[in-house]
Design a protein that fits this description.
By secondary structure, the protein is an alpha/beta fold. The protein has helices at residues 3-11, 15-33, 72-84, 100-116, 132-141, 155-161, 168-181, 198-210, 240-257, 267-272, 276-282, 314-327, 341-346, and strands at residues 36-46, 89-94, 122-126, 145-147, 184-187, 190-191, 215-220, 262-265, 287-288, 331-332. The protein is globular, with a radius of gyration of 19 Å. The protein starts with a helix and ends in a 6-residue tail after the last helix. The relative contact order is 0.18. It binds S-adenosyl-L-homocysteine and iron/sulfur cluster (SF4).
Length: 352
């Protein structure tokens, strides 16, 4: 699709066009990638963050958050559970910290996870912007995928969503370093942000395409009261239905444009609708990231409001997810890394 076609399809308010778009994207997903959905156990390792993004609940200046970093034992317990339950891979996600101590912690976690799973568990990192040296170190230790959302492909909008010392250029440069270190590269954006236009979102999809991205995690923006962004744009109001619709349309259009990448159906969709995650899969996504870490930390990792924080055990989370996936006819790719076809074609981050 051209930019104009993308914009037209984003604009189209007709429910029957929306339904047709979902069906088309789901068909393209199944034709290219089959019925499988891959799992990544999501471990929210730390909510300490040196950044101050205007939208995020764990930004540095939110003094109401109780800060934590998981112990080795907690990370390894979550990883062992993920491996024993044959999820195939896991994601270590957290706030952005680049102290030598944190870099060492993560390196030790990667080593430990490789050891405890005999190298079977795939490891994705989502720990923000780091130096090439750090990315190389983590890659060489055994991680093979990295997620760093660009948040928006518009430098102007990026400037409105972040303080002066956060830079769009630096973020793009970090994505390039991630690729240079050898990782499969994941990025993504938020949809339905204050100040964001449909043209911006069409450009986001073209940005993924131009950067030759392997995997995409994107979700609707959801306000958090202890952050500045919700009050910065007087013309913006939170409409959960609009956010969900935009989220699903963007997944579907991205799938049509990039048939072989991995696309995650993210937690933000679930926060907006109890069946949001399944609807994301039906819109062409092929990855889900169930939380596997300790339930006790979940209420401290609130990036936005309404994030599902029940303290369910990973076992309960798994049973519920299996029931829901079976209901839409999806097949879980147990025990597989589930690298994107796009990354495999590119030969990136392949370790076996
Ligand atoms: N600190 C790392 C990873 C953790 S944040 C990083 O920023 O890359 C992970 C993602 O959460 C961010 O990329 C952002 O897109 C998303 N996020 C943050 N606040 C959000 C909000 N209010 N609504 C929806 N998504 C949000
Ligand atoms: Fe920190 Fe990531 Fe939140 Fe920004 S989005 S404040 S970098 S955790």
């Amino acid at each position: 699709m051209t930019r104009n076609e993308l914009i037209e399809r984003l604009k189209d308010p007709n429910p029957s066009s929306m339904k047709a778009l979902m069906e088309e994207a789901y068909r393209v997903k199944r034709e290219n990638l089959g019925p499988k959905v891959f799992l990544r156990g999501l471990v929210e390792v730390s909510n300490l963050c040196s950044k101050n993004c205007y939208y995020c609940g764990i930004r540095r200046e939110n003094g109401k958050v109780h800060r934590y970093r998981m112990s080795d034992e907690e990370v390894f317990r979550a990883a062992r559970w993920t491996w024993e339950n044959r999820y195939g891979s896991l994601v270590l996600q957290g706030g952005e910290v680049s102290s030598p101590e944190f870099v060492r912690d993560v390196t030790r976690w990667i080593e430990g996870i490789v050891r405890l799973s005999g190298g079977e568990l795939g490891i994705t990192l989502s720990l923000g912007e780091q130096s090439l040296e750090t990315y190389r170190r983590w890659y060489d230790t055994g991680a093979h995928r990295y997620l760093l959302r660009i948040e928006t492909s518009s430098p102007e909008l990026y400037g409105k969503l972040h303080p002066q010392d956060h830079s769009f250029k630096d973020r793009v440069a970090a994505l390039e370093r991630i690729r240079e270190a050898g990782f499969q590269v994941g990025t993504g954006v938020m949809m339905g942000l204050p100040f964001q236009s449909l043209e911006n979102m069409a450009d986001d999809i073209l940005f993924f395409q131009n950067l030759d991205i392997d995997m995409i995690g994107m979700g609707p923006y959801i306000p958090h009261q202890e952050t500045p962004l919700p009050n910065m744009d007087a013309s913006w109001t939170f409409d959960p239905v609009r956010q969900l619709t935009l989220g699903l349309k963007m997944i579907a259009l991205t799938r049509l444009q990039l048939p072989t990448v991995n696309i995650a159906s993210t937690t933000a969709l679930e926060a907006l609708h109890p069946e949001g995650r399944e609807r994301g899969l039906l819109a062409g996504a092929n990855v889900i990231m169930p939380q596997v870490g300790e339930g006790v930390y979940r209420k401290e990792y609130l990036l936005y409001e309404g994030k599902p924080v029940n303290e369910k055990s990973p076992q309960e989370v798994r049973e519920e997810m299996e029931r829901r996936l079976a209901s839409i006819g999806a097949v879980i790719g147990y025990g597989e890394w589930g690298d994107s076809l796009h990354a495999r074609n590119r030969g990136a981050g392949a370790r076996r």
